[in-house]
Structure formats: structure tokens, C-alpha cells
């Protein structure tokens, strides 16, 4: 193989790999990004307030999840809300937010400690 061919092949392979990686972060209709990890993820962005004995305070659901958890879908959100009300920390939890998934954005409400889609 001539000396000039090897650098040209390396350059072409590197450019192809970089282009493939860049297209992985472009948007397809109905998906957050092209990678399946992003396309199949369903998570919520929500603002919650908890009420206990007439006092209201903000609720951070991530304080009650395992370390490293960052995607909270509606079932996990309901599980955390149920835990907080059953444990007696709050009498009720209310809030609003959005569900983000491959199907797009949808409104989400939490009324009387129940996730309503």
C-alpha cells in the first residue's frame, strides 16, 4: 500500500465516524433524538406542592429516588407521590407539568395525590 493511501483511508474513516455520530444527535419527527435511548424514554417535568396540616411547600421527587435517577415517568412519579402521602409526610400533593415521550408533549396534572394524564 503506498504511503499516501493509508492517511487518506484513516481520514475518510474518521470523517465517516464523526458524521455518523453527529447525525445521532439530530431530531427525527416524533423523537427527541435518533438514538433509541432517547426515542423510547418517557419522562415528566413537573412542579409539585405538598400540603401538611394546612402548610404548603414545594416537593422535589428526586430526593426520594435512587442516586443517578433522572428520568421519572408517570408510574414512577405516582409511586413517589403514594409513598410520600402514605408515610405521612404530606396529606396531599398537587401540581402541573408535561409528559415528554416519542409521542410528543402532553399535559400532566397531579390532583389530590393522583397523576392525571
Descriptive notes:
The protein has 117 residues and is α+β, with helices and mostly antiparallel strands. Helix content is 31%, strand content 31%. Strands 2-1-3-4-5 form a five-stranded antiparallel beta sheet. Strand 4 (104-111) and strand 5 (114-116) form a beta hairpin. The radius of gyration is 22 Å and the shape is elongated. The protein starts with a helix and ends with a strand.
Quick structural overview:
This protein is an alpha+beta fold and about 120 residues long. The chain has helices spanning about 5-25, 35-40, 75-85, and strands at about 45-50, 55-60, 90-100, 105-110, 115.
Number of strands: 5
Mean pLDDT across the residues is 85
Beta fraction of the residues?
25-35%
Class by alpha and beta content: alpha+beta
> Share of helix among residues?
25-40%
Topology as a string of helices (H) and strands (E): HHEEHEEE
Biggest β-sheet strands, sense, barrel:
5 strands, antiparallel
| Strands in their spatial order, largest beta sheet | 2-1-3-4-5
Q: What is the rounded Rg?
A: 22 Å
Low-confidence blocks of residues: none
Described by the principal axes of the CA atoms, the overall outline is elongated
Separation of the first and last Cα atoms: 63 Å
How many helices? The count is 3
